[in-house]
Write a structure and sequence with these properties.
The complex is a heterodimer. Chain A is mostly beta strands. Helices cover 0% and strands 50% of the residues of chain A. By secondary structure, chain B is an all-beta fold. In chain B, the strands form two sheets. In chain B, strands 2, 4, 5, 6, 9, 10 and 11 form a seven-stranded mixed sheet that branches. Chain B has a four-stranded antiparallel sheet with strand order 1-3-8-7, with no helix packed on it. Classes of the chains: A mainly beta, B mainly beta. Chains A and B meet through strand 4, strand 5 and strand 10 of A and strand 5 and strand 10 of B.
Chain lengths: 107, 116
Amino acid sequence: DIQMTQSPSSLSASVGDRVTITCRASQSIASSLSWFQQRPGKAPQLLIYAASSLQSGVPSRFSGSGSGTDFTLTISSLQPKDFATYYCQQSYSSPWAFGQGTKVEIK
Amino acid sequence: QVQLVQSGPEVQKPGASVKVSCKASGYTFTNYGITWVRQAPGQGLEWMGWISVYNGNTYYGHNQDRVTMTTDTSTSTAYMELRSLTSDDTAVYYCARVSGGNPDYWGQGTLVTVSS
């Protein structure tokens, strides 16, 4: 099975900061990686698919990059509603797996 | 608009089974898959599997011996049944539409509580 490892597990940042979250796969997954945002008590929301494609309706301050085993989610200028938990997920091979999550908190 | 509406909360005893439904609307049901994800209290997301609505093929995660995913194309509804429940199965269960391998629209979640 492919394992997904996110870092950091949590971070504190201020409104306007640039934030970067990384996700590493235990083996190559090509570009079969998605990023999700989850606010407390809500369902996850797809932000990025195919490693770097922005889901319709998602603000352009979110971007994704990477391929193979190393991936990055970047928020260019953190906004108040961006304080949430972020997950990566691979869909390259079954069982699909999520990273453990990165909680973005207000500094 | 695409909507996935899940069934209501459940309380089950250890050893019992639960069947959660997910009714889709706003798109052609057979053109997409459905995936199921769960989240235990205070924990991360756990992938349970997905089903191709088109041909019924299923792909399960680590609970594959206890889970069955099905669909009813006549009502555009997907189902996830989990058997032999234990307290570790207490979680919010989500369904999501799968488009090209990506879960793009999610249901509101169904809380399943396993307690004696």
